Amino acid sequence: MKHFEVIANLRTDLGKKATKKIRKEGNIPCVIYGKNDVMHFSTAQSAVRKLIYTPAVMFADINIDGKVKSATIKDIQFHPVSDEILHIDFYEVNEKDPIKINIPIVVEGNSPGVKAGGKLSLNNRRISVKGIMENIPDNFTINISKLNIGDSIKIKDLKSDTLEFTDPKSNIVIMVATARVVTEEETEAEAEGEEAEGEDDAEKKDDETAE
Q1: Per-residue pLDDT reduced to its tens digit, 129-138
Q2: Do residues 165 and 128 make contact, with C-beta atoms less than 8 angstroms apart?
Q3: pLDDT value of position 182
């Protein structure tokens, strides 16, 4: 997985006035939660923009006054109107300890079921995995070349020598639905719409008769 360096400054004054001043200067108050300690620091909005606004999953190498800590993002608070970043919480990552993180899914191959008219459905674009930092990939690739109509791939079907999949085993990740099911659902929806229109017309006629 890619690493992204964040240049930061240690915070010693944690009061409200100091926090407002940090934000006014275009910086973000942040916290990194370690195994045995908690560090407060600030960093520029521009320093984390690429880390935040990217579809890729990255580890943050946070350089706090020369001391580097590897971390993942735990939570981000945004301003409700301007979407400005107000606060970021990080979790420190130890190279030897397993971590849990969500990574993107990449689909490869051509499904026979899709070629036959089925509809490919990707229920989740990310999956939760657990492993040590050096084994966490940028994404997890799933091959669909054996999926026929009605087939699916569940969490329990995924294999990896270095990762543990932590989502429920019965969760469906990808499936190929039948075209008939899709058509039936559309037909039912249309029928319900026509029935509702018919009821409205009947009500109008009753009202006209009553007048």
Answers
A1: 999 988 998 8
A2: yes
A3: 46
Candidates 61, 58, 59, 65; CA nearest to 42 is 65
pTM of the model: 0.67
Torsions phi, psi for 197 (to 5 deg): -65, -40
Rg over alpha carbons for the chain, rounded to the nearest Å, is 26
Contacts of 94 (CB under 8 A, 6+ apart): 35, 133
Terminal Cα distance for the chain, rounded: 74
Within 13 Å of residue 93, how many CA atoms lie on the same side as its CB? 24
Q: Within 13 A of 159's CA, how many CA atoms are on the CB side?
A: 1
Distance CA 27, CA 40 (A): 13
Question: Do residues 32 and 25 make contact, with C-beta atoms less than 8 angstroms apart?
Answer: no
Q: Can you tell me the distance from the alpha carbon of 25 to that of 19, in angstroms, rounded to the nearest whole number?
A: 10
Which of 123 and 128 is assigned the larger pLDDT?
A: 128
Which domains are assigned to the chain? 2-93 (2.40.240.10), 100-177 (2.170.120.20)
Q: State which H helix or E strand residue 95 sits in.
A: none
More confident residue, 79 or 197: 79
Q: How confident is the model at residue 210 (pLDDT cuts 50, 70, 90)?
A: very low
Q: List the structure tokens of 179.
A: 């075209």
